[in-house]
Design brief:
The chain is built from 6 helices and 4 strands. It has helices at 3-22, 37-49, 61-64, 74-83, 112-124, 140-160; strands spanning 54-60, 87-93, 99-106, 129-133. The chain starts with a helix and ends with a helix.
């Protein structure tokens, strides 16, 4: 094989490698489980507790909150930014898909001040948040009692308005 042929093959290999690298996606992603094992276990208990309700995991705040400011204002951008990428662990809805409660499963990574700010944000829209410690393994009956207490409280508040 001549030296020209070898140089040609080397140049061709370099071009192929560069083309391969340039055509690779810039961002790479890997799959992530929707729920942790602990959240999966709690989700099953919630489903047992609330067979007549809809329980949705990992719901983005953007799906249940919207800024009250005019869409063209700076306040709208600020409010929208506060919603950001926040989500709730579980959203409980009735048969009409009306929100009954937001359920958060707190573990050692939760920060009380941040949780209070999130709860205030959702409360301003009229939602109630139930927080459970992930270590506490509540039985379905206790979860059901808590959800129905929140549901009844919301009905009474709406009746007063």
């Amino acid at each position: 094989m001549s030296q020209a042929n070898i140089l040609f093959l080397v140049a061709l290999a370099i071009v192929a490698i560069v083309a391969f690298l340039l055509l690779q996606p810039k961002d790479r992603w890997s799959p992530k489980p929707l729920l942790t094992r602990n959240e999966q276990e709690f989700f099953k208990r919630m489903l047992d507790a609330l067979p007549d309700h809809h329980v949705f995991p990992q719901v983005a705040f953007r799906a249940i909150l919207q800024p009250t400011a005019r869409s063209s204002s700076k306040a709208y951008s600020r409010q929208s930014g506060r919603i950001g990428a926040k989500h709730c662990d579980f959203l409980v809805c009735n048969e009409k898909l009306e929100v009954i409660a937001i359920v958060e499963l707190d573990d050692r990574t939760h920060v009380a001040e941040k949780d209070a700010a999130r709860d205030a944000m959702t409360a301003s829209a009229g939602y109630r948040t139930l927080r459970y410690q992930s270590k506490a393994k509540l039985d379905p009956a206790a979860i059901r009692r808590d959800i129905f207490a929140v549901s009844e409280d919301q009905r009474q508040r709406l009746a007063r308005k």
